[in-house]
Specification:
Number of helices: 5
Oligomer: single chain
Number of strands: 4
Radius of gyration: 18 Å
Number of domains: 1
Structural class: alpha+beta
Strand order of the largest sheet: 3-1-2-4
Strand content: 15-25%
Shape: flat
Order of helices and strands: EEEHEHHHH
Helix content: 40-55%
Length: 167
């Protein structure tokens, strides 16, 4: 069962009244929606187990980068007890899911994009793109990876107001 087929999926769910998104892996014999917490499956791809694990790792790293950036910019992103907050729109998650699933098909592109994603964990790729440090496909992929990290919620920043000192 080393490299048996698995479903890589993106689903929505609710746990204790709290909504969430989840990207995960299920055995191809299991129905994804058998999990009572899951409501709807938005993406489902049947692929090998090792491939599913690698793609899931990249998707999770991309989503964590995005969530950390939103937290650092003080945007409200409550962390659900399970999965990814509903604050992130489905379209953003679908774009991330589709990009990493598609790029995995080209081994050279996959390695380059995974390396860029690891760099993006520490710093924005914008300076590398603008300084012409990246050329050719690396630049093209860096632009795409940076785009996957550019979501800004329409809600106001989480700015804590200080209580007036005269009350």
């Amino acid at each position: 069962m080393e490299n048996s087929s698995q479903y890589l999926f993106l689903a929505s769910g609710v746990n204790n009244g709290e909504g969430f998104w989840i990207v995960g892996i299920k055995n191809c014999d299991e129905n994804i929606l058998d999990d009572t917490n899951l409501l709807d499956c938005h993406r489902k791809e049947l692929i090998g187990n090792e491939s599913a694990k690698e793609i899931l790792l990249a998707i999770n790293m991309n989503v964590n980068n995005l969530l950390n950036e939103l937290r650092n910019k003080n945007y409200l992103t409550a962390r659900p007890s399970i999965g990814i907050p509903f604050d992130i729109p489905l379209e953003i998650l679908e774009n991330i899911f589709d990009f990493w699933l598609d790029i995995y098909k080209n081994h050279e592109a996959w390695k380059a994009c995974l390396g860029l994603l690891k760099v993006r964990k520490r710093i924005s790729l914008t300076n590398l793109i603008e300084s012409e440090s990246l050329k050719g496909n690396s630049k093209k992929w860096a632009i795409k990876i940076e785009t996957l990290h550019t979501y800004i919620p329409s809600s106001l920043k989480n700015e804590k107001l200080n209580e007036p000192m005269w009350e």
